Automatic annotation (TrEMBL):
InterPro entries documented for this protein: AraC-bd, Homeodomain-like_sf, HTH-like, HTH_AraC, RmlC-like_jellyroll, Tscrpt_reg_AraC-type_HTH
Membrane spanning stretches: none
GO molecular function terms noted in the UniProt entry: DNA-binding transcription factor activity; sequence-specific DNA binding
Protein keywords: DNA-binding, Transcription, Transcription regulation
Lineage: Bacteria, Bacillati, Bacillota, Bacilli, Bacillales
Ranges of residues in domain HTH araC/xylS-type: 184-282
PANTHER family: ARAC-FAMILY TRANSCRIPTIONAL REGULATOR, HTH-TYPE TRANSCRIPTIONAL REGULATOR EXSA
Protein name: AraC family transcriptional regulator
Pfam families: AraC_binding, HTH_18
Amino acid sequence: MDKKFDDNGRYPYHLVYQDTKSPQRELPDHVHNWFELVYVHHGQGVFFINQTFYDMNEGSLFLIPGDTIHRAFPDADAPVTSSAIFFNASWIRQGEQESDFSVLRCFELAARNNRYRLSLSNEARVLIVKHLQFMHEEQLQQKPGYRQATFLHLQQFLLFMTRHMLDQNKDQVPTSASQPLWMKESLQYIDRNLSADLRLASLCKKASVTPSHFSRVFRQLTGMTLTDYVVAKRVVYAKELLIRTDDTSHDIAVQCGFESSSYFFKVFKKLTGVTPLHYRKTNRF
């Protein structure tokens, strides 16, 4: 699922406050170009982000950069109550004063280290809950200047997390033990070899499991079919190459493992809503 937001709006921000989700109400797998913060107030479950599974429990905070595949799996007996903030990163960048420092660095650190969950002290949890309450009240009351107030609270929230991550960068964040080793290794292999043969027959052979078992466990743990997951990963990588290189669409299709330029064009437009050329023109700064 490619979740859609209004990128052309003057207020590219959305808050879902203290929402309780059972497995039946949880969104399917999704990827979007907005950044996302998820704080767990109560309950438990498992959160799949990029290639890693994390336990969700009270006080967990998750940072999800744009174009990162993720899905939450709330526990049926203890549904998760969480708050989620969605925002366009350019909204934050436009208001930053220092060129050598960005409050978005917390997302860069999460992506670089492939660690999307923060371990927080009780004091930090209290502070985060207060910021969420303030932003929720501003959204409800919509007094004059509420958008600016929301922006300032979000900036403070991000600054706190960036400083926290810089201070705690060496700490190990525990992951969920719910996936078998072959699954972890398969996800890592996909991430590092997007141009390779990533069809079921090839991957289950590497994992030494049967195709039916591989497919069943993969979908059970990630919420996605193998094909959908690989295609989404390849499109995300293609978006990165379109922005940071001058490579042709054909070259990018090859680097990302698409069987032809026409198939790349078709899939890219289906998942993003625009052509590769249009995406490049509108997202280069």
